[in-house]
Amino acid sequence: MPMDTGVPFAGDGASRQLRREAVLAAARKVFEMRGLDGASIRLIAKEAGCTTGSIYPYFKGKEEIYAEVLSLSLDDYKARLVADVDAAKTPEARFEAALWSHFRFYETRPSDMSLALYLFNGLKPQGLTRELDARLNEQLISILTIFKDCLRSMVNCSARDAEIEVGLHFSMLFGLLTLLHTKRTRVFKIDPRALLKLHIRRSVERLTAGS
Q1: Cα(163)–Cα(175) distance, rounded to whole angstroms?
Q2: What share of the chain is helix, strand, coil (3-state, %, to 5)?
Q3: Which of 45, 60, 78, 156 has its CA 20 to 30 A from that of 5?
């Protein structure tokens, strides 16, 4: 059993935040290597250089740790998305900026994409506090709302049609990124950026036709 070592796992008060951050950093590494199913509190504690018992005052289980890591990732994602969309000058440019923002964020952060896909697949409720579960749902809804707002500013459509359209683009984006990160783009002999550019152009033409 590992023993607590180092400043981040000593003391009280302000050091509690440092301890928590150290656990989250260690957990991210474990999740990247093993995923949620293969991770454990024991492995996280070993990576963090602490005892398993020193983790439980902060988190009830690995699902709660995973959810917190995911929540922090979504904070970063949304900040990038909002900045990119706000910099665009026209409805078409905002729609394009949203799709490119998603692609570029997860292109450079594949482990964050794994976290996001787990959320879209339905995060397991075990070990989650009600507050954290609500926070994750609110974060996801707020992100999807940005995409729907970009779409509806470009074309007049119902809320349901906007939901379907956003689902279409998210499917395309995650599919393209999966091909990219698994190096299957080489098999299909496609340039992911060129394909996304074509998808955006054709989508704008289709959505704005007759408007």
Answers
A1: 18
A2: 75, 0, 25
A3: 60
Give the CA diameter of the chain: 68
Structure token digits, residue 184:
């299957």
Whether residue 154 contacts residue 207, with contact meaning beta carbons closer than 8 Å, is answered with yes
Say if residues 121 and 56 touch (Cβ distance below 8 Å): no
Cβ burial, residue 52 (10 Å; 0-12/13-18/19+): middle
| Tens digit of each residue's pLDDT (9 = 90 or more) over 7-47 | 344 455 667 888 899 999 999 999 888 887 889 999 999 99
Nearest to 154 by CA among 87, 107, 77, 209: 209
What pTM did the predictor assign?
0.84
Q: DSSP assignment of 174-188, as one string?
A: HHHHHHHHTTTHHHH
3-class DSSP string for 23-90: HHHHHHHHHHHHHHHHCCHHHHHHHHCCCHHHCCCCCCCHHHHHHHHHHHHHHHHHHHHHHHHHHCCC
CA atoms within 13 A on the CB side of 170: 18
CA distances from residue 142 to 137, 138, 147, 148, 179 in whole angstroms, order as listed: 9, 6, 9, 10, 27
